[in-house]
Write a structure and sequence with these properties.
Blueprint (H helix, E strand, L loop, with lengths): L2 E8 L4 E4 L2 E4 L3 H6 L9 E10 L6 H14 L5 E5 L5 H11 E2 L4 E5 L12 H14 L4 E6 L2 E4 L3 E3 L8 E3 L6 E3 L5 E3 L13 E2 L7 E5 L6 H9 L4 E6 L13 H9 L4 E5 L12 H8 L3 E2 L5 H12 L5 H8 L3 H5 L3
Helix pairs in contact: 2-3, 3-8, 5-6
The structure holds aspartic acid.
């Protein structure tokens, strides 16, 4: 029988009502006890790593999770991580960079309603997460939620209440879990010919600032990133990546940051389709100013990738060239 480790970190799924709102209190073992269908599916062990609302999960916790998964995978066939939904997509993206050459499943899940709530989605989500981990055909980091199996690198929380809370953005969903519990993969994963050893590289630098533009954003805001000591700036621009280049023209400020060797990445505020700086003059000018295009990545993945890259190197040229590198593809290639 397969051995799966449940790492619990808090979130709504583990929460109970208090005078101060929902607070995580329920242990992994207590959650599993509420799901009789798990009996006989696999051997389950538990690690109570954190007990946080995921609004409080920061890069330090990503590193702690990555390290716990790394240690676990020398013993276990897979890992299920219960996690708050609010920042689960960030954690999933960060784990995708910090854990390299994964050849086992690392499945994050959570819920919109606490596991002890009579209408909870938590039991189904945990059960499906274990089914996916036990199935074992997928390796890498995935979010399993509302019957969907979503690559960790492209996940986004798109609903704050609806049970269908996560989507895979600009990348195919990996699969689904049918009502009868069958794990259906949309593409048959290729087994690695010669698996590389799993490595842990959990170094990061949290000094990345995200700026969401609105009509009228003042250029000084962009420039302030340099004086505040941020090492990279991500601009969530308009549409395909448009940055204002008249009146409150942001490009001189972008120039100044790049001259200070602070890379500037441009992404879009749109949920789908990514950005393309070659279409409009407001994108072409930004590209001429030296910004990097985030292409089809989610903001969550961009932030995690930049923080991880900054943890590996101080060299501006390397940071900019690494930003365009397909690390996830490389970590999964044999
Ligand atoms: N605030 C909760 C959290 O992210 C929401 C959830 O888990 O659904 O921890």
């Amino acid at each position: 029988m397969k051995k799966i480790l449940l790492i619990s970190t808090g979130g709504t799924i583990a929460s109970t009502p208090t005078d101060n709102g929902l607070t995580p209190t329920v242990s992994g073992a207590d959650m599993v006890r509420l799901i009789p269908e798990l009996e006989g599916l696999c051997e389950i062990r538990y690690t109570e790593l954190l007990n946080l609302d995921s609004s409080n999960v920061q890069p330090e916790e990503w590193a702690a999770m990555a390290s716990a998964v790394f240690t676990a995978l020398s013993i276990y066939d897979g890992v299920v991580i219960t996690h708050g939904t609010d920042t689960m997509a960030y954690s999933a993206a960060a784990l995708s960079f910090m854990l390299q050459n994964l050849n086992k499943p690392v499945i994050l899940t959570g819920s919109q309603l606490p596991i002890e709530d009579e209408n909870t989605d938590g039991k189904r989500n945990i059960l499906n997460a274990f089914r996916t981990a036990v199935d074992g055909r997928l390796s890498g980091v995935f979010i399993v939620f509302d019957g969907c199996i979503i690559p960790g690198i492209s996940a986004k929380k798109t609903c704050s209440r609806n049970f269908h809370a996560f989507e895979s953005i600009n990348r195919k969903q990996a699969g689904e879990i049918a009502e009868d519990g069958t794990v259906i993969l949309y593409d048959e994963p290729k087994a690695p010919a010669v698996p590389k050893p799993l490595t842990l590289n959990a170094n990061y630098d949290a000094g990345v600032l995200l700026v969401k533009l609105t009509p009228g954003t003042r250029p000084e805001l962009i420039e302030a990133a340099g004086t505040l000591g941020y090492r990279a700036v991500v601009i969530e621009a308009f549409g395909l990546g448009g940055i204002p280049n008249v009146r409150r023209n942001l490009l001189p400020s972008v120039h100044k940051l790049i001259a200070l060797k602070v890379p500037v990445v441009v992404t879009t505020q749109c949920v789908y389709d990514g950005c393309d700086l070659s279409v409009y003059d407001v994108g072409v000018d930004a590209a001429k100013a030296g910004v990097l295009s985030a292409g089809s990545m989610t903001t969550e993945a961009i932030m995690a990738k930049l923080m991880w890259i900054l943890g590996q190197t101080d060299d501006f040229e390397q940071i900019t060239s690494w930003f365009s590198r397909d690390f996830i593809g490389e970590f999964n290639r044999t």
